[in-house]
TrEMBL record:
UniProt protein name: Biogenesis of lysosome-related organelles complex 1 subunit 5
Organism: Molossus molossus
InterPro entries, A to Z: Bloc1s5
PANTHER family to which the protein is assigned, alphabetical: BIOGENESIS OF LYSOSOME-RELATED ORGANELLES COMPLEX 1 SUBUNIT 5 (PTHR31784:SF2)
Native organism taxonomy: Eukaryota, Metazoa, Chordata, Craniata, Vertebrata
Keywords, in A-Z order: Coiled coil
Amino acid sequence: MLVSIYEEKRGLREMRVLENLKNMIHETNEHTLPKCRETMQDNLNQVLQKLQAATDSVCKLQQREQERKKMYNDHLIASENQHTIQWEEFMKEQHNKQAEVDEEHRKAVERLKEQYAEMEKDLAKFSTF
């Protein structure tokens, strides 16, 4: 009989434990899981919005960077073209100056030849004495 009472109490304890588990499962299924699902959905939406905002910002930054690089490259090309034009003008000017110097040198050599020829004539006059 003692065993039977013990078994009965044990059975009642197990029934209470099972009833408590059933209530916990019901509470979880009916209240906790829907709240968790709703919270996760809200958080997921917020994360997706922030991700979209970050993506938009990155796209704008990339576009600005590309525009800045294009402006820099355009400026660099324009500057290079300007330097090429200046170099060509400088070289043309140097060529003209060289031609002037060559002409002055040719004239100076011609004058010296004439002067020496004149001096030789004068010298020839004096040597006949």
